[in-house]
Structures are given as C-alpha cells and as structure tokens.
Amino acid sequence: MAQLNPGVVTGENYRTLLQACKKGKYALPAVNVTGTNSVNAVLEAAAANKSDVIIQCSNGGAAFFAGKGFPDSFQAKVLGAVAMARHVHVLAEHYGICVVLHTDHADKKLIPWLDALMDHNEAHSEQLGYPLFSSHMLDLSAEDIDFNLAESKKMLERMAKMDMSLEIELGVTGGEEDGVGSDNVDNDKLYTQPEDVLKAYETLNEIGHFSVAASFGNVHGVYKPGNVRLRPEILKNSQELVQKTYGTEENPLDLVFHGGSGSEKEKIEESLNYGIFKMNIDTDTQFAFAEGVGKYVFENENAFKYQIDPETGEPTKKKYDPRVWLRKGEEAIIARLNEAFTDLRSKGKSLALDDAEREAA
User: Fold this and answer.
1) Catalytically annotated residue among 104, 139, 196, 282
2) Could you give the number of structural domains in the chain?
C-alpha cells in the first residue's frame, strides 16, 4: 500500500488516499468543525486511531471560526474557512496522519463564497505550489440538474487547474444544515436516480476529479427510528450503470455518504461496498461536545456560580478554567469519533504509516 507524508493532502496524494479507501472498503469520517477545540479533537482522535480523516466546515462554521463579532458577515465566512485551513496545515503533520481539508454544503446563494475561497486557493497555489484546500462542495441539488451540472462544470474547470477536487450532490439530503436544505422535501427527491449520476459522470469526468453525494434516503440530523429509510442499493445501481455504459472497473464513482449521524450501522457497512470513501458526521459530534461539557457543569455547579465555593470556602478557579471544561467537550468528541473510525473500518489504516506500523495497528 502507498505511503504518504503526514499532513494535509491535495491533488494526486488526495486521490491516492481516496483510492486506498475504496480498495480497502473503508471510509473516512468527514467532521464538521467550528473552532480550534473541535479541530484539535478531530486531529487527536485520528492520531489515536491511526486513521486519516477529513476536516470540513460549513459556511456557518467558518463564520463562527472567524468570530461572531467579525464586522463583515461575508468575509467572516471566507476568512473563517481560511483560518481553519491554515490552523490544520500548521498542526496536521505533527499528529502523524493525513488530513483532507474540505468545505461542506454550498448552495446557489453561496457560490460567491466558493468563488472567494477559490481566490485564496489560487494565491496559495501560486505561492506554495498547492491549494489551501483539498476540495470543496458545490451543492446545487435543489436546482434543476442541468443548472447543477453546468455550474459544477464551471467550478471544476477552475479547480482542475490546481488539481483540486469538487464534490457535488444529486438528489437531496433531507433536513437542514446551516441554512442549506429543508425538512420539507418530497420523499422521491431523497433518492438519487442512477441516470442522473451517469449524466454527471459524462459531464465532469474528463475535466477533473469529482465525487458525488448521491442521496439514498440520507437526512441531516438525528430522527427517531423509522423516520429515515436508507437504501444503499441506489449507490450500487449507480455504480453499475456507469460501469456497464463505459466499460470501467468496478465502482468507478467516488461516493460520499451525507447525513451519517444516527445512521444504522448495518447500512453504513453495506454502503462501504459501493464506493463510499467519506461519511459526514456533524450532529453526533455537536451533541457529544455539549453532553461532555454539560455533564461537567452539572457536576460542578458551584464553580460556575461562585469564585469562592460558599459551601467549602475554597476557590473554584481550577474548575471553571475554560481549559478544563472545554477539554471535557473535546474528550467527548474523541470518544464519538473512536466509534466512527471503527464503524467505517478506517482504524489503523492511515497512509502516513509504513507497512509495519499498519500491520501492528
């Protein structure tokens, strides 16, 4: 198996990592982050599991990274994403694993956000020889497919000059995430048609590298059992149609699993057989962070009300220190990601390891 240098991967190294996932029938968690606490927790979890990982932010996550008081709301989305990416570039190689840097859902109204990020990618590439991000997502699944693919083609043509990858969405992932999507989606739109996937392949394949978030009943967020019906066979049918039409090898498409939080483990496992290399996880890690912090606060209530505990007379500074309770949130994210690395079968398979290290893991 190929070995890569630890750190952020782009271009050929990104594709090498992706192909290793598909060949090994495992996938990487793609974790939405909102600040250095969540970024660092993801890096720590990946290192502990000796797995590579995908770190991504939505437009809202990027804006939060820049600061809620940032004076220009559009620039907050842009510079917050840039700041997140630079933070990861500085640290990732020292954690000893490979990291894919990505931005999540950008619908029609957010095309200017991606255009601005591409300006930063181009400046970074001109200076250092590689882009700031590995890939971006352009999610025009709510639009007509011809508009979706025409805009995707235009974006990929710009990205291909720097050997970047584009993620598109066909069909609609239910639920809503940072202003993108809706809970009011017709059921049939939650299932991508293989013919649409074939059309995307025909439009984009000769331009550059792309991946497809093909909807097979996925929904953002967590819902009570029975409300979400995943049908991974749609992924299988899409792969087989492209393979049959163009005489490709098995699983020619690089597929993405959106709405991974709360999904049935057997459906996750089945999807790994059909070319899934990436599974998004956001809701579960948000809850894990909140639960970890909340539990600590409930157990140390006086420390969050008084600097001197009225019951013991002792200073409470060591308990209300943000480094203590924020760490509880980080540890909870790590625990949830330990589960994700196992579910996705990526544990111990980092391409930053040599063969002996991988065997030992």
Assistant:
1) 104
2) 1
Q: What is the mean pLDDT of residues 305-316?
A: 97
Can you give the chain as a three-state secondary structure string? CCCCCCEECCHHHHHHHHHHHHHHCCCEEEEECCCHHHHHHHHHHHHHCCCCEEEEECHHHHHHHHCCCCCCHHHHHHHHHHHHHHHHHHHHHHHCCEEEEEECCCCHHHHHHHHHHHHHHHHHHHHHCCCCCCEEEECCCCCCHHHHHHHHHHHHHHHHCCCCEEEEEECCCEEEECCEEECCCCHHHHECCHHHHHHHHHHHCCCCCEEEEECECCECCCCCCCCCCCCCHHHHHHHHHHHHHHCCCCCCCCEEECCCCCCCHHHHHHHHHHCEEEEEECHHHHHHHHHHHHHHHHHCHHHHCCCECCCCCCECHHHHCHHHHHHHHHHHHHHHHHHHHHHCCCCCCCCCCCHHHHHHC
pLDDT at 219: 60
Distance CA 101, CA 83 (A): 12
Q: Does any domain span residue 50?
A: yes
What's the predicted TM-score (pTM) here?
0.92
Parent domain of 64: 7-290+334-360
Q: Is 163 a catalytic residue?
A: no
Confidence of residue 197 (pLDDT cuts 50, 70, 90): very high
- Look at residue 326 and tell me if it is in a domain: no
Residue 25 maps to a domain: yes
Percent of the chain residues topping a pLDDT of 70: 90
Minimum mean pLDDT range among 20-24, 213-217, 266-270: 213-217
**Which CATH number covers residue 246?**
3.20.20.70
The per-residue pLDDT for 340 is 96
The tokens for 300 are: 């140390």
Question: Residue 156 corresponds to which amino acid?
Answer: L
Q: Is 315 contained in some domain?
A: no
Task: Check whether 333 has a pLDDT greater than 90.
Answer: yes
Looking at residue 147, its pLDDT comes to 97
pLDDT on residue 265: 81
